[in-house]
């Protein structure tokens, strides 16, 4: 599968399955299904920020701004364990021009 493909998938159910598989394949340690669902919710927040202009929360804003310390401080237990997967997600699944949009946060 092309790594950039799942964010372009408009069918939400299909995109969720693609994200689940990708998270499990790329996680440093195998997350539980509840953790995967939580990560997917955060991915969707980032996607909706990029595509629809929705406001992200504190953790996702820190991730988008590449503010490692703030991301660690504002992360819950699931996200703290999975910071690496967010770096991969931004690199492979959000268009590179997202940095320009981050300046408006």
How many domains? 1
Query: Which descriptor suits the 3D outline?
Result: globular
Which structural class do you get from the secondary structure elements?
A: mainly alpha
Helix fraction, binned, reads over 70%
Mean pLDDT: 90
Largest sheet: none
| Oligomeric state as shown | single chain
Describe this structure in words.
This protein is mostly helical and 105 residues long. It has one domain. It is globular and about 35 Å long.
SSE layout:
Elements: H1 5-8, H2 12-26, H3 33-52, H4 58-64, H5 68-74, H6 77-81, H7 83-93, H8 98-102
Helix pairs in contact: 2-3, 4-5
Summarize the structure.
By secondary structure, the protein is mainly α. It has helices spanning 5-8, 12-26, 33-52, 58-64, 68-74, 77-81, 83-93, 98-102.
Descriptive tags:
mainly alpha, 105 residues
């Amino acid at each position: 599968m092309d790594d950039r493909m799942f964010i372009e998938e408009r069918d939400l159910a299909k995109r969720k399955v693609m994200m689940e598989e990708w998270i499990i394949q790329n996680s440093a340690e195998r997350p539980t299904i509840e953790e995967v669902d939580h990560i997917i919710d955060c991915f969707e927040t980032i996607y909706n920020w990029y595509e629809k202009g929705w406001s992200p929360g504190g953790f996702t804003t820190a991730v988008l701004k590449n503010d490692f310390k703030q991301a660690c401080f504002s992360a819950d237990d699931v996200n703290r364990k999975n910071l690496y997967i967010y770096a991969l997600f931004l690199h492979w699944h959000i268009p590179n021009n997202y940095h320009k949009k981050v300046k408006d946060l």
